[in-house]
Amino acid sequence: MALVKEFSTINEAVQAANSLHGRGVAENEVFVLAHDDSITDTVADHSEAKKIGVDETGLGTAFKNMFQSQGDELRTKMEEIGLSQAEAESYEKTLDKGKILLICKDDNQSSFLGY
């Protein structure tokens, strides 16, 4: 199960990702996703969060994503790391509003993410 929290700013997302890492969450358990690739890159570059890449999706999905719309690509990435199709659709709408998502695969961190 993956836990997701929305952020409005890059700084908030960076601080949250680094806080998770400080609590012992492995780097390969925290992912960042935004509609704008430059925002995703900035958060990943300044924190312990990773971008969702080939290691998580597999080569076939990564190749398929090259031919999909951005919304389809984002939903596919979210599903590949553990979100349901319905969750991915809902969170893709959140991304459309300019939010940044931090996705934690360590469900022991539910209190940190507000669950």
Keywords:
single chain; 15% strand; four-stranded mixed β-sheet; globular; 115 residues
Summed up, what is this model?
The protein has 115 residues and is an alpha+beta fold. Helix content is 49%, strand content 15%. The relative contact order is 0.27.
Describe this structure in words.
With 115 residues, this protein is of the alpha+beta class. The chain has one domain. Helices cover 49% and strands 15% of the residues. It contains six helices and four strands. It has helices spanning 10-22, 37-45, 54-57, 59-65, 70-80, 85-96, and strands spanning 3-7, 30-34, 50-51, 100-104. A four-stranded mixed beta sheet has the order 1-4-2-3, with helices on both faces. α2 (37-45) links the parallel β2 (30-34) and β3 (50-51). α1 packs parallel to α2 (37-45) and α5 (70-80) packs across α6 (85-96).
Count of beta strands: 4
How many separate domains?
Answer: 1
Mean pLDDT: 82
Give a short account of the largest sheet.
4 strands, mixed
Strand percentage, roughly? Answer: 5-15%
Oligomer: single chain
Measured between the Cα atoms of the first and last residue, the distance is: 13 Å
Helix content: 40-55%
Structural category? alpha+beta
What's the alpha carbon Rg, rounded to whole Å? 13 Å
Q: Which segments are poorly predicted (pLDDT under 50) over 5 or more consecutive residues?
A: none
Q: What's the shape?
A: globular
Side by side, the strands of the main sheet go 1-4-2-3
Number of distinct helices: 6
Compressed to H and E, one letter per element, the order equals EHEHEHHHHE
